[in-house]
Specification:
2 domains; Rossmann fold; globular; single chain; alpha/beta; four-stranded parallel sheet; 252 residues; 8 strands; 11% strand
Length: 252
């Protein structure tokens, strides 16, 4: 990243609404690493739920808003593999289906500058040790969209392994879906609960204090089961761990 590059935070609507500590931790982390971060206030939903449900026409305004919000920035960083995946894989498609060539070109360009947080840290900033400290037993859930659509690979694990004090334990059957899937959990609640219960069982088998992931929606789904089971296991976003230091250890 060259000096003077403009970095914008793509907070995502679920983080902004359900757990604003995640975008706050993201900014704290990026600023600690030398970035100057802006927050375009007119940003909103990426439109993934509407797109996944087939409401392409209704999702199109979110594409225009995303382009308008972020087109002036060199890098857009989002703490969500799912939402970043939607921007990169769906926005240009929506514009193309609408026959809007100008929007398709602009959406493609902006999507190409949109990074999931761990991608940005490892690939753009070139760091895996971000100076974090988190003295707890932790297990990591690789969310489906982050792995299969955004393709973050092992970047989250590279970053977690460099955290001082952490006891990172492998999650059995880690590649299995947690059952959230956006509207899937609403349309198929019984199946979703069964899948989340399987995931929670595997999490409990690790004796971890915290379950970490890069998508808050998945953490909410699994965390709901863990909470109802009174497991004592907390959920935490990877941004919150990476933002933690010896001076101020964040907790979920």
């Amino acid at each position: 990243m060259s000096p003077g590059s403009r970095v914008a935070l793509f907070a995502t609507c679920i983080n902004d609404t359900m757990k604003p500590s995640i975008p706050i931790a993201t900014v704290k982390l990026l600023e600690r690493l030398g970035c100057t971060v802006s927050y375009p206030e007119k940003q909103t939903c990426c439109g993934q739920i509407m797109t996944n449900t087939g409401y392409y026409k209704e999702a199109l305004p979110t594409v225009r808003n995303y382009v308008d919000s972020f087109e002036d920035y060199d890098y857009i960083v989002g703490p969500s593999g799912s939402c970043v995946g939607s921007v990169r894989e769906q926005h240009a498609m929506l514009a193309h289906r609408a026959g809007d060539g100008g929007l398709e070109e602009a959406a493609t360009a902006v999507a190409g500058r949109t990074y999931e947080l761990t991608e940005f840290l490892v690939d753009v900033l070139g760091v895996t040790d971000v100076g974090a400290y988190f003295p707890h037993r932790v297990t990591y859930h690789p969310t489906c969209h982050s792995m299969r659509i955004t393709k973050v690979g092992d970047r989250p694990l590279q970053l977690l392994r460099a955290v001082r004090g952490i006891d990172l334990v492998e999650l059995p059957m880690a590649d299995q879906c947690c059952g959230f899937g956006g509207t899937f959990s609403v349309k198929n609640p019984d199946v979703s609960i069964a899948m989340a219960s399987d995931k929670a069982r595997h999490v409990r088998s690790t004796d971890a204090e915290y379950l970490v992931a890069g998508d808050q929606a998945c953490l909410m789904n699994i965390g709901g089961i863990l909470h109802r089971q009174r497991s004592g296991i907390h959920t935490i976003h990877i941004a919150e761990i990476l933002a933690s230091t010896e001076k101020e250890v964040s907790v979920a």
